[in-house]
Structures are given as structure tokens and as C-alpha cells.
């Protein structure tokens, strides 16, 4: 609610400036007329002081006797000013990026981390960026630092490490609302790096290693259980057909002979030996 009130207040200030652009007063109009006469009399010379050029990515906010002359900024291309009475300020409309210096932040779960980021913004309203704030670029940089600390102070460490996209979107929304009165449009905010204390890094590494070892043991136990079930089913099949055991012996012998050509101890069934003993 407060942000909406500030936004309306900023828009009313811009409208008030626009409505009062024509009220120069009698003295003001006299100075403007004298300046125009001066330009006409010394036309070949004054033309170099009257003609101004701004680039495609720039706009010019013209002040006449300290008042903004038009609701819309001039440019790009050629525009005219009156010497002695008019002055102008160039505003760059290109997207500007800057790094947020590393900020020491205490998270919601009382962990101290160092976080930095990058912000992309541009001027959307040249008149508001000149009339409503002394230095829109510097003010946006300072506001980005405080916004980063305020937003991350409400997050715990797990959210900070896993939900960077959500944090960046929240920062962009807060910055865009706060800088709307300054004629600034925040296009993108990104979290670059999160630096943790070395002790916390070692503790998290040990925790991750223990978790992986526990998971590996569970997987190995599940494999042993599945193998035992398969062996049980195989033993039941062999018990139903005694000749299957002999075939298994021959298959094992063939496997051993193919892999290792060395002395092979082959188990001989007792029923075969008893048959020879009877003879």
C-alpha cells in the first residue's frame, strides 16, 4: 500500500512539473523574447549555439529558465535551444549493468554468508530520472545493496543455496517498485556467488559424504536381498532336477578354463564314485 502511494505521489509530481512548464511569468517571457531577438540578429553565429544533436540512445531534457519545457524529452537527432535561457541534460537510455559488492549477510537460521550479484537497469522516463532524483544511477546502486541484504535476511541457508531464481525475482520486483518514481526500469537481477565460511563448508561436505555412504549401504543391502531371493529360486529349480546340478558343474568348468588356464579342481559327485566302487 505504501509503495502504491509513493508511486502515485511521484506521478503527481511529474504531472505538476508538466502543468507548470508554461508558467514562466512576465520576466521570463521578456527574457525569452530578448534571447530570440538576439538569435535572429546574430543568426550566422548563434546557429552553432542553438543547434544540438543527441544520439539514437540518448534523450535531452530541456530546462528553460529552470523549468522543464515539454512533457516529452527531445531526441534523437537535432533540436534547438535558446542561448542564455535554455539548458539541457542528456540522459542515456541504454541498459546499464553493475556488480553489487559482496555483502556480509546473516540468514534467517543465523548463518553468516557473503553474497554478491549483478543488476541490469535502464532509464524508462528521462524527465523523472532528472527531476525526481539527483543521481539515478548512484541511487539505484545503493538501493540494490540494501535490497539484497533485506531480501536475503528473510531466507535460511537452504533456500539461499537452492532458490536463487526466486530470490533474484523478488529482488527485481522490490527494486522496480522502489525506482519507479525515479524513471528507472530494473530489467534483471542475478545472484552471482554465495561464499560460505570454511568451517561450514567442511561440515556440509562431511554431511553430504555421510549421506552418500548411507545411501550406498542401503543400495548394497537391497542388492544382496535381491541376489539371495534369486539364489533361493535357483536352488528350488536345481532341487527339482538333479541333472541340472551336473550341467551347472560343467558350465562352471567351462568358465574357469576360458578365463584362467591353470590347475582346476573340479568337484566330482559321490554317486558317480559309488558306481565305480561297486564294480
Automatic annotation (TrEMBL):
GO cellular component: plasma membrane
Location(s), subcellular: Membrane
Encoding gene, per UniProt annotation: stoml3b
Protein family according to the UniProt entry: Belongs to the band 7/mec-2 family.
Residue ranges of the TM segments: 21-49
Primary location recorded for the protein, binned into one broad class: membrane
UniProt-listed SMART domains: PHB (SM00244)
Keyword field: Membrane, Transmembrane, Transmembrane helix
A Pfam family the protein falls into: Band_7
Residues in Band domain copies: 49-208
Protein name per its UniProtKB record: Stomatin (EPB72)-like 3b
Organism: Takifugu rubripes
Amino acid at each position: 500500500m505504501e509503495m502504491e502511494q509513493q508511486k502515485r505521489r511521484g506521478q503527481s509530481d511529474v504531472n505538476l512539473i508538466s502543468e507548470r512548464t508554461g508558467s514562466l511569468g512576465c520576466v521570463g517571457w521578456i527574457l525569452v523574447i530578448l534571447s530570440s531577438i538576439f538569435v535572429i540578429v546574430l543568426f550566422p553565429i548563434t546557429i552553432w549555439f542553438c543547434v544540438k544533436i543527441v544520439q539514437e540512445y540518448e534523450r535531452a531534457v530541456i530546462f528553460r529558465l529552470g523549468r522543464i519545457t515539454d512533457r516529452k524529452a527531445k531526441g534523437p537527432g537535432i533540436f534547438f535551444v535558446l542561448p542564455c535561457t535554455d539548458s539541457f541534460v542528456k540522459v542515456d537510455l541504454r541498459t546499464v549493468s553493475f556488480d553489487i559488492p559482496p555483502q556480509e549477510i546473516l540468514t534467517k537460521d543465523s548463518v553468516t554468508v557473503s553474497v554478491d550479484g549483478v543488476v541490469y537497469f535502464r532509464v524508462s522516463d528521462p524527465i523523472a530520472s532528472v527531476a525526481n532524483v539527483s543521481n539515478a544511477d548512484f541511487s539505484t546502486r545503493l538501493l540494490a545493496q540494501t535490497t539484497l541484504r533485506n531480501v536475503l535476511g528473510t531466507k535460511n541457508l537452504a533456500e539461499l543455496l537452492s532458490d536463487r531464481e526466486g530470490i533474484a525475482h523478488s529482488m527485481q520486483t522490490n527494486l522496480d517498485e522502489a525506482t519507479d518514481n525515479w524513471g528507472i526500469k530494473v530489467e534483471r537481477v542475478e545472484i552471482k556467488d554465495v561464499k560460505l565460511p570454511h568451517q561450514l563448508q567442511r561440515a556440509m561436505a562431511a554431511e553430504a559424504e555421510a549421506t552418500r555412504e548411507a545411501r550406498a549401504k542401503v543400495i548394497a543391502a537391497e542388492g544382496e536381498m535381491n541376489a539371495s531371493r534369486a539364489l533361493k529360486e535357483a536352488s528350488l529349480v536345481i532341487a527339482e532336477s538333479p541333472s541340472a546340478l551336473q550341467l551347472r558343474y560343467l558350465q562352471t568348468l567351462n568358465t574357469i578354463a576360458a578365463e584362467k588356464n591353470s590347475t582346476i579342481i573340479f568337484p566330482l559327485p559321490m554317486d558317480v564314485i559309488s558306481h565305480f566302487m561297486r564294480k
